[in-house]
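In full, the data:

***
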Amino acid sequence: MRKSWIGAITLAVGIGAAASAVFAQTTGARNPPLVIESTAGNDVFAFYCASCHGRNGSGDGPVSRSLKATPPDLRLLTRRNGGEFPRSRVAAFVAQGDSVSAPAHRTTEMPVWGPVFTGLGDSNALAKVRIANLVAYLESIQRK
């Protein structure tokens, strides 16, 4: 009889330890998501771009101080382009980066978002929607 009590206690301790391990795994700190469901331009900007470019696009995000070059003030793109927002150039830069002609010779630290968005499980079409909405958002924050 004593052996069955010891066996029952051992079994109970084992089940408790296993349950505790499972519970600890489900209640620990979670990694932030890599992709958001929203495709709205302001949401895409806040989630992927604001850490470097700042919440308002001025180039003063919390990560900007650790970069080699200060991110540009994205609110001034129209002003820097003769009063016209360079929509297709901005879209190409976001999607393909500055390495379109020479991939090994990138000049910025900015990620190339086209492959990133596609690689995060989105379809290529959804990645293009995110980029188009992001570009429209950037156009909407231009200073006059």
Remarks:
- The first helix runs from residue 2 to 27.
- The chain has two domains: 1-30, 41-140.
- Helices lie at 2-27, 41-53, 87-96, 113-119, 124-140.
- The mean pLDDT is 81.
